[in-house]
Amino acid sequence: MKRAVPYVNDAVKTRDLKYYIFDWDDNILHMPTKIKMEHLGDDGVWRPVEVSTSTFSLVRRDAAHYRAPGGVWADAFRNFEDAPDTTHFIEDTVTALERIEHGEKPGPSYNALKKTLREGRLFAIVTARGHSAETLERAVRVFIKYALSEDDRAEMMSNIRGYRAWLGGAGANDFGTDVEELDRYLRKCRYSAVTNCGFKKRMWEDPIYQEKLATATDAARPELAKEFAIRDFVEHVFHLLRRAGAMNRSISIGFSDDDKGNVKCVSDYIRSELSRRFDAIKFVVYDTSDRSLPKGRKVCVSGQLNLPGF
Known about the structure:
Layout: E1 17-22, E2 35-40, E3 46-51, H1 53-59, E4 66-67, H2 73-76, H3 88-101, H4 110-118, E5 123-127, H5 133-147, H6 150-167, H7 178-188, E6 190-193, H8 197-204, H9 207-215, H10 221-243, E7 251-257, H11 260-277, E8 281-287, E9 297-302
Parallel strand pairs: 1-5, 1-7, 5-6, 7-8
Antiparallel strand pairs: 2-3, 2-4, 8-9
Helix pairs in contact: 3-5, 10-11
């Protein structure tokens, strides 16, 4: 039986080139995963407590009242890394998505990720978790299954094929099945869990970040790691577009995070380094820490382009 010819949206070549970087917890989804800590009571006794990721972003620098269990941060984040025969992150992602189906409010960048996927645009997930890139990609596939309707997924596939026909180079019109094309698209995106051992090894091997990490405090290292992950994605996009001969188009990259410390760090990094090195790219940073603001607050713009959709 002859396979049906897939629909290819050739109109994508007229679009602006917009790419997105998302933190995961409390930015895309309100995950049920808890951080194990100790809290100092009024009686001077340290007692074990479990806190949400949103609470942790508020208390992580309050060393006078909160600490890791026995001072060992690796023990605090046991639920935030991969372990043999466990799929906690995937299960928690399903739980968070099911809660949305039952009326719970999603994270402020939930709809932005939906739109990014529906339009077939490249993106990066940058999170303080310790999972592998493969685990984060699996979570995105779960998101596609739960958050995108059948029509959304059909639109996504037509856009993915459209971008590959335009930017993919030799053999770009030799399309495979939906499964094959989705695999190819997701492999072009980036997934960085900055406390993952493999990610940290790669960062320590980078000469620039060796020097930065050598003088950084423990509290500052997760923010430096997000810098490194963001630089990796920007370089990836830049080289992809340069190979495709598309550098004459308007290019923009948006970043969203619910942690004020990360927002400041990334904003400063864009101003001091990225915007100078990649002066053809427009950068926008969104602070999504205030849940009363549906799409977050724009705090930094490099260039004149305002990004709708966040």
